Amino acid sequence: MTGRETADDRGTTAGDTTAGSKTAGGTTADGRGTITGDTAAGGTKPLRELFLLRDDVVFLNHGSFGACPQPVFAVYQNLQRELESEPVDFLARERTFPARMQQARARLAAFVGAQRDELVFVPNATTGLNVVARSLLLEPGDEVLTSDHEYGALDRTWHYLCGQAGARYVRRPVPLPLESSDQIVAAIWSGVTDRTRILFLSHITSPTALIFPVADLVRRAHEAGIVTVIDGAHVPGQLDLDLTALGADFYAGNCHKWLMAPKGAAFLYARTDVQHLIKPLIVSWGWQSDDPGPSRFVDEQEWTGTRDPAAQLAVPAAIDFFTQYEWPAVRERCHTLLREARTALTDVTKLTPICPASSDWFGQMHTLPLPDVEPLEFQRELRKRFAIEIPVFRFNDRSYLRVSIQGYNTEQDVAILARAVRELLG
Ligand SMILES: Cc1ncc(COP(=O)(O)O)c(C=O)c1O
Q1: Is 279 in contact with 88 (CB distance < 8 Å)?
Q2: Is residue 71 part of a domain?
Q3: For the chain, what is the domain count?
Q4: What is the whole-number distance in angstroms between the Cα of residue 326 and the centre of ligand 1?
Q5: What interhelical angle do 375-386 and 411-425 show, nearest 10?
Q6: CATH code for position 383
Q7: Contacts of 256 (CB under 8 A, 6+ apart)
Q8: Do residues 89 and 192 both lie within one domain?
Q9: 290: which of 132, 221, 365, 402 lies 20 to 30 Å off by Cα?
Q10: pLDDT, mean over the chain
């Protein structure tokens, strides 16, 4: 699968659109009318109005890059202004910067069920997973076991590193459609050999948006002495996460997708007892620090050189937003709307869905099969003629479309999508 064909197609363009007029509010994820923010936050605005997304686009692609609500974005921009107004105060005065980062990490750690110093901020999941992959030294003949549903950038990371070390990158096929999570476990686990050193898996897959049964696989790997590296790019905010209970050795998650933080906010988790395996990808002041903090892992990873940390420092604001607007209830309504979208699209395509319709299998993102269309052309038509932003791609020689539903989406969005797909398929 190439980068351009993935669900997270970086080639998606934001061309001008004319069709697909859409009103904010209207019926929504709950199907019972406009979702408003009449919560602890005290607002009564429809959630749609809290986001910066353009009104003339039917945005059904939260999964690729997320979307940040205005209250969180305001905190982010204030931090940036504060940084620019006195950079030395912000970044270097005594220990104020590490202390601020520590506070933000503590909030995030509590949110994902980890200890504060088991987490470091990284700009994105790709970076966090590269830190792990490049630290775990592979030897000739070693095997890294994974599935064929992984994100293209990380597939490349492991291909590259295995190639350098003379190790094997073993991608086990997980065929579709699926009926039971045991099928996933069996398909992947059957790839274990006595050379398997690392199990690398997505918690929620990119092309197929499936929730993989990682807890089961992590437990098996742990018993077999295999190191576990989990790609949770889509998880924070979309699923409840308890990293301590999950027990993976290493886990990277994005805050800028489903937790709705500004772009550039992600984390790398390394369990305390395996942190010694992690090396600094960028060697900077934190290595053999003159002023060490309580964690060598944090010292070595946190300061890589001058940069803008505002997105990461805005993560507590994203968690506040999530709490104040009662997002767990919002995402349940999103899941219900997503299932309605699945029914509507399946009515049009008559194709068998890739998995059962349940929150055990998908959350706010679902991948649906299409007939054999040319994906980029189909995606372009959806954008140009219907103003719909959605990824369409090829996965294992079949065409699919991946629908994301976030709190700002409405029943009307789903109706527009179903109508457009019907029209394009003729
Ligand atoms: C499963 C998965 N892993 C990793 C990533 C990479 O995320 P980022 O670009 O923020 O590093 C993505 C992006 O969508 C993804 O879907």
Answers
A1: no
A2: no
A3: 2
A4: 25
A5: 120
A6: 3.90.1150.10
A7: 65, 66, 68, 124, 262, 263, 264, 265, 266, 311
A8: yes
A9: 132
A10: 92
> Pocket of ligand 1, candidates 150, 204, 214, 231: which has the most ligand atoms within 8 Å of its Cβ, to mutate?
231
Say yes or no: 238 and 161 in one domain.
Answer: yes
My answer on whether 261 and 366 are in the same domain is no
Residue 12 domain boundaries: 3-65+326-425
Are residues 210 and 346 both part of a single domain? no
Ligand 1 atom 10: residue of nearest CA: 124
Residue 20 reports pLDDT greater than 60: no
Mutate to test the pocket of ligand 1, among 6, 202, 206, 263 (most ligand atoms within 8 A of CB): 206
Phi first, then psi, for residue 365 (nearest 5°) are -140, 135
In short, whether 254's Cβ falls inside 6 Å of ligand 1 is yes
Let me know whether 115 and 203 are in one domain. Answer: yes
Q: Is the CB of residue 36 less than 8 Å from the CB of residue 46? A: yes
| pLDDT for 17 | 31
**Strand order through the sheet with 392-395:** 365-370, 398-404, 392-395
Helices (H) and strands (E) in the chain, counts: 15, 12
State the DSSP H helix or E strand holding residue 15, giving kind and residue range, or none if neither. none
Give me the half-sphere count of Cα atoms (radius 13 Å) on the Cβ side of residue 61.
Answer: 25
pLDDT digits (tens, 9 = 90+) for 59-106: 999 999 999 999 999 999 999 999 999 999 999 998 899 999 999 999
Q: 127-160 pLDDT, tens per residue? A: 999 999 999 999 999 999 999 999 999 999 999 9
Give the pLDDT score at 45: 66
What is residue 26's predicted lDDT score, i.e. its pLDDT?
A: 36
Q: Which two tokens stand for residue 34?
A: 């406009």
Both 246 and 307 in one domain: the answer is yes
Q: Which of 266, 250, 252 is nearest to 309 (CA)?
A: 266
Domain limit, last residue, from 321, 349, 379? 321
CATH number of the CATH domain containing 125 = 3.40.640.10
pLDDT of 32 higher than 80: no
The pair of structure tokens assigned to 14 is 């934001």
The confidence band for 46, taking pLDDT boundaries of 50, 70 and 90, is confident
- Does ligand 1 have an atom closer than 6 angstroms to the CB of 126? yes
> From the alpha carbon of 256, which atom of ligand 1 is closest?
10
In a shared domain, residues 30 and 60: yes
Could you tell me the pTM of the whole model?
Answer: 0.92
Same domain, residue pair 316 and 394:
no
